[in-house]
Amino acid sequence: QEYNSTQLQQQPNQPGLVALPSSLNSVVRNLANMPEKRVAPTIDNAEDFDLKLPGFLNKNKTLAILLDYDGTLAPIADNPNKTVMPITTEVVLNKLAKHPNVFMAIISGRGIKDVQNRVGISGIMYAGNHGIEIERPDGSRHDYQLPIEVQENYTKLVKELRANVEKNNAWVEDKRVSLTYHYRDTPLDIKESQKQVAVKIIESHGFRANQAHEAIEAKPPVNWNKGEAALFILKQQFGENWADDVKVVFAGDDTTDEDAMRLLQGVGKSFRISTDPQIQTFADFRLSRQDLVSDLLKWLSSAYGL
Ligand SMILES: O=P(O)(O)OC[C@H]1O[C@H](O[C@H]2O[C@H](CO)[C@@H](O)[C@H](O)[C@H]2O)[C@H](O)[C@@H](O)[C@@H]1O
């Protein structure tokens, strides 16, 4: 099994890992120069962007906009097939995507074809399956190679989940290399226990179980995630010194987006969409409502003269 530094801290019960007293934990973090999650300043309305980020944007500098899809560009719906981007978001997103000084990438947990069809903008970069598959505007791809053993375990995992917990309205979304176990419509009295069985099955196959909206994301145990994918995309597009030349903005709403928020700390500005005022995040700001994403995009587009 492979773990990155954050997961090492979050999973002290893994075999071979020693849980540190909390006082030592912060010493270790400082030594390793690792950022910590905390309650981030909040953006509550469109005016807050200018007020809280004065001077951040510069229309003469390239802007890289990296965005999550579900819960960010489109509000959460009760079924993944029912998501729709609000028209205002769609319009401003299309304008930004065409700007010569703007680079755009959508980094989603969905399968790549699925998210491409839903966003529907050509000429931008897409990453699917939490960054495992990446497609450039010219159609060329980067696929993170999963070890054979992990691929085999994935096939077994799908089978076992389907046989044991695809019941009581819960279902498995098989995305070839990662899956989502959806349990929104499972009756309340058995929801939690059935979900716990699913989590156990996921972990017994060596996969990571991440809490999502009425769903569990099962991700392969590799050191590749939305954060690594974001850095890979920026390096490929702008070279090793991308941080000197490019203004980076990232927005996402989920636990899986935190990987990007963590790795972009200090080199970009990131926004976590959450209604929870106490949420702990690596993001620079919390957007208190999903519809503020549209305002974020309008703020970017007006700074770039659109
Ligand atoms: O990384 P994202 O673009 O945010 O994708 C994350 C997952 O989104 C989808 O599930 C979530 O959104 C659904 C539609 O709003 C909702 O019904 C579900 O409860 C959410 O968990 C998608 O189905 C997954 O494949 C993505 O991994």
From TrEMBL:
Q: Which NCBIfam families match?
A: HAD-SF-IIB (TIGR01484), T6PP (TIGR00685)
Catalysed reactions listed for this entry: alpha,alpha-trehalose 6-phosphate + H2O = alpha,alpha-trehalose + phosphate
Tell me the GO BP annotations in alphabetical order. Answer: trehalose biosynthetic process
Database matches in InterPro entries: HAD-like_sf, HAD-SF_hydro_IIB, HAD_sf, OTSB-like, Trehalose_PPase
For whether the record's keyword set contains Signal, the answer is yes
Name of this chain's protein: Trehalose 6-phosphate phosphatase
- Domain of life assignment: Eukaryota
* Keyword Hydrolase in annotation: yes
EC top class, in one word? hydrolase
Per the UniProt entry, the Enzyme Commission number(s) are 3.1.3.12
* Single GO term (MF): trehalose-phosphatase activity
